[in-house]
Amino acid sequence: MNNLTCFKAYDIRGRLGEELNEDIAWRIGRAYGEYLKPKTIVLGG
Questions:
Q1: pLDDT one-digit tens code per residue, 1-45
Q2: Other CB atoms closer than 10 Å to residue 8's CB: what's the count?
């Protein structure tokens, strides 16, 4: 998915399957983690 219309001025939002999908969510999360470079990560669900 190369459609980047999900990036707005102050947030990321879009229609699931059209502007956002699992792949783009994974890429955004990965890039954010690389940007922060945390020493420890805690996940919950």
A1: 566 788 888 998 888 888 888 888 899 889 988 998 888 878 887
A2: 9
Which structure tokens are listed for 30? 């990965």
Could you give the maximum distance between any two Cα atoms of the chain, in Å?
34
Radius of gyration of the chain (CA): 12
Query: What is the DSSP annotation of 1-41?
Result: ----TTB-SS-B---BTTTB-HHHHHHHHHHHHHHH--S--
pTM above 0.70, yes or no: no
Count other C-beta atoms under 10 Å from residue 19's C-beta: 16
